[in-house]
Amino acid sequence: MKLSTLSERLGSDAETAWRVHNLARERIEQGEDIIVLSIGEEAMETTAEVVVEQAVASLRAGRHHYSDVRGPTRLRQLIADQHLSTSRQRVAADQCTVYAGCQNSLFAVAQCVLQSGDEVILPEPYYSTYPGVFTATGARAVKVPGPAERHYLCTVEQIADAITDDTRAIVITQPGNPMGTFYSDDELAALVALCRDRQIWLISDEVYMSLLAPADRCSPATHDNQSECVITVGSLSKSNRMTGWRVGWTITPAPLADLLAELSMIMHYGLPPFIMDAAITAIEQDQQTSEQIRQSMNRRRLLCKEILGNISNTRLLDSGAGMFAVLDVSASGHTAEDFALGLLEHHAVATLPCGSFGDNCEYLLRISLCVPDDEIREACQRISAYAETLNSAAV
Q1: CB 150 within 8 A of CB 294
Q2: Is the dihedral of CA 16, 42, 47, 182 positive or negative?
Q3: pTM for this structure?
Q4: Percentages of the chain per state (helix, strand, coil), in multiples of 5
């Protein structure tokens, strides 16, 4: 039977990105002991008990029927209040729309602002699913590689040079995945001015924002007081250890929020009320978790730097934020995928090659900091041992 052209636009990059991770999962199912550093999830941690108990209580109270397609007003007001505290942009609850995670939020936004013939600018590195999410609309992805000397963070000038008459949106991640790099407040102001002048949407994925030091947290929404062109996307996945709960949101100008609500009506018809109740509790009562996570990530980043910082023929890229460390293996003579496959085969450590994060990322290896300290230390020692093996073989 014939499939739509959507099947061609989705592509296989995102699937390829997880090749090493999936091989590791298969070996774990066969009983092997693998250290998994290929996913941004604290698998050894659980959601705060107060949040879990709220979900259970809500279920038992019968909170499992249809719900508001936008999300409950109380939750949307909390999202608006939280947004005000981080961006200084005042929005109404009706400008917030709740979705099943950040990924779902981005897909919904793409459907409402892009169409065939449009262009969307994706600064590299971008998260591996971005091309599929934004080109599913029929739009064309324009990829802009960031310079290595800026830890692969694109300049405003590079982005401006990529704009054409067909550009309808620019997507940034603040801070980035995998690099953890982020735009300064001045750079964000310049991007917002550029988008306002050219009538282009600026989509800001801020799912990792809570992992930045408070002084470094800045959003383009700060410079968009009239809610003209910035779309902010957020989630509880990383900040509250709620990856599997699937709670994300969009913050948009009111007309776009109304359109997103119409899309939600025909897409999911409202999300589970008991999960929304848990999300309310997470925002109101679980404010300490994000700081605990940030401190854990920073401590493990230092462990990585201590062990991997001086391996010959590799370079540890230290951006100082986010859930990942990134190893540049270009001098080893191997792509990141080859390096990752060999590391898994010979030393039982799963990492994520970044080839599907952009054309300039094939030598970058993403190392998750989401496992306990002792596992990070052991994994880094194995990575070091494997890299030295490659160095010896090259002599």
Answers
A1: no
A2: negative
A3: 0.94
A4: 50, 15, 35
- Cα 68 to Cα 32, 51, 65, 84, 98: the distances in Å are 45, 21, 10, 23, 10
Q: Are 6 and 136 in contact (CB under 8 A)?
A: yes
Q: What is the mean pLDDT of residues 252-257?
A: 96
Residues 123-148 have pLDDT tens digits of 999 999 999 999 999 999 999 999 99
Q: Answer for the pair 173, 205: CB distance below 8 angstroms, yes or no.
A: yes
- Rounded to an integer, what distance in angstroms lies between the CA atom of residue 53 and that of residue 372? 25
Domains and CATH numbers, the chain: 6-46+289-394 (3.90.1150.10), 49-285 (3.40.640.10)
Three-state DSSP class for residue 364: strand
- pLDDT grade for 395, boundaries at 50, 70 and 90: very low
Hey, is 59 helix, strand or coil?
helix
- Under DSSP, is residue 180 helix (H, G, I), strand (E, B) or coil? coil
In angstroms, what CA-CA distances link 260 with 90, 216, 227, 307, 321?
A: 19, 30, 16, 47, 32
